[in-house]
Amino acid sequence: MPTVLTHAAPALTLGLALGAKVIPPRLLVAGVALSMAPDLDSIGFFMGVPYESLWGHRGISHSTAAMALAAAAGLALGPWLRAGRMVSAFFLFLAVASHVVLDAATSGGLGPAALWPFEDGRHFLSWRPIRVAPMSPSAMFSDWGRAVVFSELKWVWLPFTAISLLILFFRKALTRNNRRVVRFRRLAP
After folding, report:
1. How far from 119 is each of 39, 123, 150, CA to CA, in Å?
2. Any alpha helices (H) in the chain, and if so which ranges?
3. Model confidence, pTM
4. Residue pLDDT, tens place only, 134-189
């Protein structure tokens, strides 16, 4: 898995790039939290749940069912999240889906059970550039941990930051063009 903080990158950058009018702060916080939440299943390692079990790490919490549950929460809580129900549902769905895709792009462990409940298999992407993170926090201070951080910067944070900056650039450009059109219409007879 990527580190838990890196799982927040897609939701965080998309939310910030689209701005608070589209993704209000409450929805952004919910999306960031849900993008990290599937890894709560790692507690199963300490409770004797086998890794390969659907209840183990990267099992049901990393599935289509989890994505659907996040979308349902968005539909139900949209007004409380200060956004439309469909925007909330789609953003929260994407938050969990991004977690699954990032895990499927890692170099180790078992793949996520992304297609559960339709089938029980664990799946990886054919391209897996992200170094898998150690489960031990102390191992993050080793050569392995440093390699993971570098890998996540290169394959997650830099691309998502670039995408976010491009979205911001185009939003600002569109806003400037819209202001010019409004001024031109006011000046026209």
Report:
1. 21, 11, 34
2. 9-18, 25-36, 44-47, 64-77, 85-104, 143-152, 158-187
3. 0.88
4. 888 888 889 999 999 999 999 999 999 999 899 888 888 887 766 665 555 555 55
CA-to-CA distance for 63 and 13, rounded, in angstroms? 23
Instruction: Tell me the C-alpha distance between 121 and 90, whole Å.
Output: 25
The encoded tokens of residue 48 equal 């004797």
**What tokens does 106 get?**
């890692």
Q: Which candidate, 141, 9, 27, places its Cα nearest to that of 80?
A: 27
What whole-number distance in Å separates Cα of residue 170 and Cα of residue 164? 10
Query: If you search the block for the tokens 């898995």, which residue do you land on?
Result: 1
Alpha-carbon gap, residue 55 to 61, rounded angstroms:
8
Alpha-carbon distance of 36 to 56, in angstroms, equals 16
Q: How far apart are CA 35 and CA 80, in angstroms?
A: 19
Closest CA to 80 of 88, 70, 69: 88
